[in-house]
Amino acid sequence: MSIWRMMALAASAEPIRASLPLNVDCSLPCPCCIILGACVDLMKHKITLIPGDGIGPEVTGAAISVLRAAGFQAEWDSFVVGAEALTKYGDPLPRDLIDSIRRNKVALKGPVITPVGTGFVSSNVRLRKELDLFANLRPVKSLAGVKSRYENVDLIVVRENTEDLYSGLEHEVVPGVVESLKIITDRASRRIARFACEHARQEGRKKITAIHKANIMKMSDGLFLRCFREVASEYPEIEANDLIVDNACMQLVIDPTQFDVLLLENLYGDIVSDLGAGLIGGLGVAPGANIGEELAVFEAVHGAAPSIAGRGIANPTAMIQTAVLMLKHLGERDIALKVQSALERQLVSGKVLTRDLGGQATTSEFTNAVISSLT
Ligand code: ATP
Q1: Which of the listed residues 116, 308, 357, 363 should we mutate to test ligand 1's pocket, taking the one with most ligand atoms within 8 A of CB?
Q2: Which residue of 139, 171, 210, 231 has the lowest C-beta tally within 10 Å?
Q3: Is the pLDDT reported for residue 38 higher than 90?
Q4: Has 89 been annotated as catalytic?
Q5: Is 186 a catalytic residue?
Q6: Are 260 and 155 in contact (CB under 8 A)?
């Protein structure tokens, strides 16, 4: 901020202070704090926050505490979504939230409960479609200190996020017969294939395996596979192969280290993501991101886990690692590294672990232990 802008702000300090968000995070005195007595817009990052429901508020709260302790400063624009938003605003996905993400370009999102078998359309799915967050990126990497059946798993799940059986097109043909439409388009298939190739190139990955059932769904999965092969041919340095989804699941369980990047349609991607989480210690540790051309919403793989919600026992590791992905996206590599290292040091010490990892610690005990590990 220039000194001129700062002086102009100082001259009109009252209205500005009145419009300050309540949750401005300002722990260090900066020039505008000194002049105005409040932080105005030196905040480098404005981020939309969706605490979500179920365990969402517990794990997003934990992640934000760790980020703050690591020195990350941001203005958080917080919104309710799902059943609470439906009651308050008549829409589980309020327009103000969508506008906020479009403005800020980045959001950190907790899980949101979707009624099973009836009720409103999943807010998670609607959000991804509405903002055209076409790529769901889910790194599956073993964490030192987290016991699992495998070591050295390091693969990336790239899931198409906007179509397939998630099109939401279902209808009753005649009583007792329903139809769900699986939509696969050339455009979305090429776009996600290119994303996977570009991401693999950027991360120095060597191989992409497209996972499909094109032997049965010859047209839909056949199109997805054909698009992948054509796009991948433009990336000669990356080995491109493919596997039928049932075999892929078996191969993942036999030896996950044979895989590098996995490319999947929406539904297979959802299922294989949970399988991937199971390979590295469970849903409590698996991070994720929804990426579009301009916008990104960072969201762990796990759902709202209602059975453990409100008990203070959820593992915030997945959400902390999700926040690390967000920090990298924002160009905050040093803080990202600091948070990831503290998390790993804390896990390796094995002293304060949540129940899903074999310990007895609460979410806040675990979070405080991570904060104590920050250097
Ligand atoms: P969705 O379909 O909404 O993604 P899901 O079917 O994948 O949800 P989750 O809500 O993610 O299911 O949770 C499944 C189980 O995994 C929970 O009952 C809980 O035992 C465990 N779990 C998920 N997330 C966590 C977490 N952060 N900490 C500890 N356990 C978790």
Answers
A1: 308
A2: 171
A3: no
A4: no
A5: no
A6: yes
CA 37 to chain CA centroid, Å, is 36
Q: How far is CA 375 from CA 69, 70, 256, 327, in A?
A: 10, 8, 33, 17
The H-assigned helical ranges of the chain are 3-11, 13-18, 31-36, 56-69, 83-89, 95-104, 123-130, 186-202, 220-232, 245-254, 266-279, 317-329, 333-349, 363-372
pLDDT at 17: 27
Closest residue CA from atom 2 of ligand 1: 303
Do 361 and 370 touch, CB atoms closer than 8 A? no
Active-site position among 96, 99, 246, 334: 246
Flag the least confident range among 3-7, 66-70, 265-269. 3-7
Look at residue 116 and tell me whether its pLDDT is greater than 90: no
- Catalytic residue, chosen from 89, 91, 274, 328, is 274
- The reply to whether 246 belongs to the active site is yes
